[in-house]
Amino acid sequence: QVQLVESGGGSVQAGGSLRLSCAASGYTSTRNCVGWFRQVPGKKREGVAIIDTDGSTTYGNSVKGRFTISKDNAQNTLYLQMNSLKPEDTAMYYCAADRVQWLLLPEYKYWGQGTQVTVSS
Asked: Which of 26, 54, 94, 107 has the lowest CB atom count within 10 Å?
């Protein structure tokens, strides 16, 4: 059974940084496209960053140059380093995984429970 557990969310002032982690179990990360999404109540889930099965990365336009996605295959852990945070980055952040290469589309089969990120101005 695939399980994804996010951590690292919290409250930070604009311009600050946070690092999210997603501990995964029940699947092989090298065979799955894995990524981070975020959602604000009343809005669609948005793709933030993904790592494809070949190791290539894709970022949403709103986070390019500020966020960095990475993973540790040995630890089966996915990370999202978020720098220069803005109030509009405030959202629930989810990690996701699937063998299908959905890239930034929120159609992944497996999801974590989410971790809240709040950025104040």
From this structure: 54
For 58-83, how does the pLDDT look when each residue is reduced to its tens digit (9 = 90+)? 999 999 999 999 999 889 999 999 99
Q: How far apart are CA 82 and CA 49, in angstroms?
A: 11
**Distance (Å, rounded) from C-alpha 37 to C-alpha 89?**
11
Q: What is the mean pLDDT of residues 74-99?
A: 96
Place of tokens 């990524």: 35
Do residues 112 and 20 touch, judged by C-beta distance below 8 A?
Answer: no
Instruction: Provide the 8-state DSSP code for 89.
Output: G
Q: Which two tokens stand for residue 33?
A: 């496209």
Beta strand ranges found along the chain (DSSP E) = 3-7, 10-13, 18-25, 33-39, 46-51, 57-59, 67-72, 77-82, 91-98, 110-111, 115-120
